[in-house]
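Dear colleague,

Thank you for sharing your sequence with our group. We've completed the structure prediction you requested, and as agreed, I am returning the results in plain text so they can be pasted directly into your records. Please verify that the sequence below matches your submission; if there's any discrepancy, let me know and we will rerun it promptly.
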Amino acid sequence: MPGGLILEELCVGYDEADVLSGVSLAVRPGEITCILGANGAGKSTLIRAILSLTPPRGGHILHDGVEITGWPTHRIVSRGIACIPEGRKVFPKMTVRENLLIGAYADNSADAELRLDNVFNTFPRLKERLGQLAGTMSGGEQAMLSIGRGLMAAPKLLIIDEPSLGLSPLFVKENFGVIRRINETGVTVLLVEQNVKQTLAIAHRGYVLSQGKVVAAGSAAALRENAEVRAAYFGKN
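Please find the predicted structure tokens below.
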């Protein structure tokens, strides 16, 4: 099963400051792996490094056994790595259909319409709003659109950044259920979140970042029972 990702001793920074120092982790094919951590822990920088938006200063990134460290972003995306960004980032003056089709821009095949059907099976509400401008949708609907746009790339590895951000508890629960169902279709997921309880309820395993370093790692069950993780996070999400 494709989609595996390995980071080895990754170091990333801006100007003179290191944000990530010697981060190593593995995203196993077919699983949901989560990255947990508070604001400023380095989670967003980790995603930027994987996508080569902020190239690493040191270390290695391997996708399905191929080193992709420092590759151009478009080449990384063409390998089947898609990202659903924090804050959804839909194109507000474009329709739902136009937003979705942008997700398949790198693929010139005739599969786009079939992929649209697959997205509509996951999010029937989007089919009802194909001609609606994305900027006029609710936050929950925009979250659906953002995930649907990511699925249009037919990813092997789907990176999802803070899917609960700014959403009501009802939409958070719904979106996490969707992420689980996406994974059950065979898509490997790297889920970056602060919502610890919801995340560990669907993840297979995870890592906790603090000040740019991995401070805890293990199965989701083990992290739920980890005393430091419980003290730092549970009761706050």
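Summary note from our side: The domain at 1-80+158-237 is CATH 3.40.50.300 (Rossmann fold).

Kind regards,
the structure core
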